[in-house]
User: Which sequence fits this backbone?
């Protein structure tokens, strides 16, 4: 599963960089046709600067962080922030290299092209992933520790939002729960045994606040098994 997440991350980065190159190249080509300008070394330098800066800006801004539970509008806001930073990079590069023939209007056209291309790309990727998840693929498997009201509510949230791409493999709770439809996997102390028997990706801790020692123990065990834990 970690390999699948890594592959999805690399795929998203690669496609985004391709979109950046497409937006920049098409914008440069437009002005080359309109003004009859000839491509120069500056064009290559500008393309390199934009692609490299996009990667680092996106990493710092968290654009490639977990996005399953984010809606499209939230991701669109993140794209706009990164595009505005790209505009700043383009302005700086064009200011430093004064002996170029690319007009300032290039920045406006580039930003508009990038917004349209990336929005379409993000929309299509979401549609494909949602389709795969409905087919039971590309899912993250969750283990919920604590079968109280909070744990059950979280389970219902996951069930009613299949597009999140999560699947609850079961619960751990010190009290048997007949209402869990066979998803009670044992007591909390059996956590390590469950890790060996079920494909758990993330652990959701839904224990009461006063169970401090038990929560700390769960976090320690999850760290030992490199499982992501959320409280």
Assistant:
């Amino acid at each position: 599963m970690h390999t699948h997440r890594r592959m999805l991350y690399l795929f998203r980065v690669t496609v985004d960089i391709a979109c950046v190159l497409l937006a920049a190249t098409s914008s440069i080509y437009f002005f080359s046709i309109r003004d009859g300008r000839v491509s120069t070394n500056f064009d290559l330098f500008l393309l390199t600067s934009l692609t490299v800066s996009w990667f680092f800006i996106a990493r710092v801004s968290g654009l490639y962080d977990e996005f399953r539970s984010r809606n499209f509008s939230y991701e669109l806001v993140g794209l706009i922030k990164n595009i505005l930073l790209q505009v700043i990079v383009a302005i700086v590069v064009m200011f430093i290299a004064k002996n170029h023939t690319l007009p300032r209007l290039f920045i406006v056209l580039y930003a508009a092209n990038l917004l349209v291309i990336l929005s379409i790309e993000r929309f299509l990727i979401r549609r494909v992933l949602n389709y795969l998840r409905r087919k039971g693929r590309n899912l993250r498997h969750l283990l919920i520790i604590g079968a109280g009201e909070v744990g059950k509510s979280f389970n219902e949230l996951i069930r009613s939002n299949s597009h999140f791409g999560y699947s609850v493999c079961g619960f751990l709770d010190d009290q048997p729960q007949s209402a869990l439809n066979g998803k009670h996997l044992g007591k909390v102390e059996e956590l390590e045994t469950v890790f060996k028997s079920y494909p758990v990706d993330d652990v959701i801790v839904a224990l009461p606040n006063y169970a401090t020692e038990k929560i700390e123990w769960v976090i320690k065990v999850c760290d030992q098994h490199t499982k992501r834990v959320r409280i």
The chain has a mean pLDDT of 85. The chain is about 60% helix and 10% strand. The CA atoms of residues 14 and 55 lie 10 Å apart.
